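This is your field. Have a critical look at the following sequence-structure pair:

***
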Amino acid sequence: MSERGVIVETPRLILGTWLPSDRDLFREINADPKVMEFFPFRRSHEEADTFLAKLNGMATEDGLGFYAVVSKETLEPMGFCGLSRPNLLGVFPEQMVEIGWRLATRYWGNGYATEAAKGILDWAFVTKNLDAVVSFAVEANHRSTGVMKRIGLHRIEGLDFDHPRVPDTHPHLKRHVVYAVTRDEWKRRMLSRA
C-alpha cells in the first residue's frame, strides 16, 4: 500500500493518493445519477479524468485534498473523502476548511462514508491542527447530512446559503445547509468516549 501514500487508516479503510487503476471507479462515481443526485451536473469520462488529475495535484503544502477511500480487505477503491478549501468568499472565511466524501452506490449502507469521514476529521484536528471544519449540502440530501451528524458536526442554521456555483436552471439545488465542529468540541467528544 506504500504506493497509495496512506494519509489515514481506519479499521476497514485506507485513505491515500489515487492510482491510475482507480480511474474507472472515479468515472463511475461522477456519472452515476444516484451519487450525483444533488449536483447540477454529471461528468463525462474526459471531465472525470481531468478532475481526478486535479485531485491528485490538490494535496498542497497544507496536505488538504480528497483522497481515495480503499477497502483494506479487497484493496478496491470505493470513493473519496478529504478536506478542501471551499473558496466561497462571502459565505465562509478564506481559511475555512470543508470535509466531504462520495462513494460508489454499491458501497452505500455499510458505514464506510462515516468511518472515512471520522478518520479524516481526527486527522484534521490532531495532525493538521485545524480550528474548525465545516460541511454543507443541499438540505434534502439526508444521506450526507446524516454522515455529518454521525461524525459530530452540528447544524449552524444562520449559515444556510444559496450556492453561487449552482446555476439558476437548478433552483432546488441552490439552498445549502451548513454543519460544523470546532477542535474544542471535537476534543470534548473524544474525552467523553474515553
About this structure: The mean pLDDT is 90.
